[in-house]
Amino acid sequence: MAEVYVGLGFTTSATSTEIVDAVRGILPQGATLVGLATAAVKASAPALIDAAQILSVDVAAFTSEELAAVHVPSPSTRVEQAVGTASVAEAAAILAAGHGQLTVGKTSTGAVTVAVASKVPPASAGFPASTAFPASTKIDDEMECE
C-alpha cells in the first residue's frame, strides 16, 4: 500500500466536514493517508485542525516561497495573486511527501482543492549494494583518520 500526503487549499468558509470529505474522496484505493499539507497561512485554520484530528494525521505547512519553488502541472494565476504561489494543493502534497510523485492532480470540490503525492520511502540504512570504493582506497596503521 502506498503512503500518501494530501495537499490542500481551501476558502475561509470551508468546514472541517468539507475538508474531510474532499480528502477521503481523493484518496486512491488502498492508499494510506500519512498527513495533510497546506500553505503556512492556512495551517492554523480551525476547520483544518479539526479535519486533521478526525483523520488522525498531522498537518505540514509550507511558506509561499517554498510552495512557489515546486514545479506543478496545474499552476493557477488566481491562486498566485491571492497567496503568492501558483499552487497550494499540488505543491504542498509534493513537498510533504519528500518531493514525492504527484499521483492525483488538483481536484476542486467547492471550497476545498486537494491533490495527492506518494511518500518517498526513507533511504535504506548503510550503503546501497551498488556502492563501490576505488581500489586505491587503502587504510593502514600510519594513516590519520579524522
UniProtKB/TrEMBL annotation:
- All copies of the CobE/GbiG C-terminal domain together span 5-117
Q: What is the recorded name of this protein? A: Cobalamin biosynthesis protein
Organism the protein comes from: Rhodococcus globerulus
